[in-house]
Design brief:
By secondary structure, the protein is α/β, with parallel strands linked by helices. The chain has 2 domains: about 150 residues, Alpha-Beta Complex (Quinone Oxidoreductase, Chain A, domain 1), CATH 3.90.180; about 140 residues, Rossmann fold (3-Layer(aba) Sandwich). Helices cover about 25% and strands about 25% of the residues. Strands 3, 5, 6, 7, 8, 15 and 16 form a 7-stranded mixed sheet that branches. Strands 11-10-9-12-13-14 form a 6-stranded parallel sheet, with helices on both faces. α4 links the parallel β9 and β10. The longest helix is centred in the last third of the chain and has 17 residues.
Length: about 325
């Protein structure tokens, strides 16, 4: 590995699965990369719902303790392996697939990233603007296009459009030329329309299904459920012929699946989790994300910044449901202030 050495680094890590208060903030030995790895000095990271699933053990994936939590990172290249090309020390880069599958996480001063999971950040894009959208937007992209096979002109229903993944799905579907109907809380309407939704329905509206049918009388070609309510009885009834439902939330949900209406429509219900996306799929998503980041089309609804040492607190707030539409960016440099 061409580069730097340090005796230790600060990191947010766990020594076993459990609650948020099990996250420690302290010193660990810095990671050592291999020939196809890139060492990155972290500028910004964040906390996703899936990070809480990994930390708690609710979603099992290979980890080695002590385990650094977190998935998304934006930073600068500090060193490259002998087999790495295309990146140089000082490049501003990002990754959204650390912290699972045997890879240590992003909540540290320094991380190691396999070169096939690393992407350049477009010039002029702030790391603190990029970090909070990387995971939600890539999730939305792969749900819409890789699993949902979205095409221009189709009718798309985004369930949970006020959240981070749902909001990104609205932007991406609208950019692709789809007609988008968003469902979320009533006070999310202006936000969702600003993202590109052509129509909006309050998810608590007792006439929700009828309102959806008014938007798409022939049914929806694609329904993306980012809310985790998983009301399959309603959404299957709203599908067009050969319509698709992609479910990407609802870890503990056990909904009723109306099999008869589904197969008579030649429809499908697909589950999707970005943690199982291939490196090729992630790279495909990254190209679109970078294009939209450069244009300023992908931004979090609300962002607050906190030191890396606040990781345990942010995990707890997320699990208590206190971050609706808001993202917390963790910055290692704030611990030095």
């Amino acid at each position: 590995m061409r580069a730097m050495k340090a005796a230790y680094m600060k990191a947010a890590y766990i020594e076993g699965f459990g609650s948020a208060d099990g996250i420690r903030f302290g010193e660990l030995a810095p990671p050592v990369g291999g020939p196809t790895d890139v060492v990155v000095d972290v500028v910004a990271t964040t906390v996703n719902p899936v990070d809480t699933f990994v930390r708690s053990g609710a979603w099992r994936t290979p980890v080695t303790f002590p385990f650094v939590v977190g998935r998304d990172v934006v930073g600068t290249v500090a060193a490259t392996g002998a087999g790495v090309s295309g990146f140089a020390v000082g490049d501003v880069v990002w990754c959204n697939s650390l912290g699972h599958g045997g890879r240590q996480g992003a909540a540290a001063e320094r991380v190691v990233v396999p070169v096939d999971r690393l992407y350049r950040l477009p010039d002029g894009v702030s790391p603190t603007d990029a970090a909070p959208v990387l995971h939600p937007a890539a999730t939305a992209y792969l749900a819409l296009f890789t699993r949902g096979a979205l095409r221009a002109g189709e009718n798309v229903l985004v369930v949970g459009a006020g959240g981070n993944v749902g909001g990104a799905a609205v932007v991406l579907a609208a950019e692709a030329g789809a007609r988008v109907l968003a469902t979320a809380r009533a006070d999310d309407e202006q936000y969702c329309r600003g993202l590109g939704a052509e129509g909006f329905v309050d998810y608590r509206d007792p006439e929700l299904a009828d309102r959806c049918r008014e938007f798409a009388p022939d049914g929806f070609d694609l329904v993306v459920d980012a809310a985790g309510w998983n009301d399959l009885e309603t959404v299957v009834d709203l599908l067009a012929f050969r319509g698709r439902v992609v479910v990407l939330a609802g870890l503990r949900s056990r909904p009723v699946l109306p099999v008869g209406p589904l197969y008579l429509k030649d429809g499908s219900v697909t589950g999707f989790v970005i943690s199982r996306a291939t490196t090729a799929e992630l790279a495909d998503a990254a190209r679109t994300l970078n294009r939209l980041l450069a244009r300023g089309r992908l931004r979090s609804r609300s962002v607050e910044e906190a030191p890396l040492s606040a990781a345990a607190e942010v995990h707890a707030r997320l699990e208590r449901g206190q971050l609706h539409g808001r993202r917390v960016v963790l910055r290692p440099d704030l611990d030095a202030v």
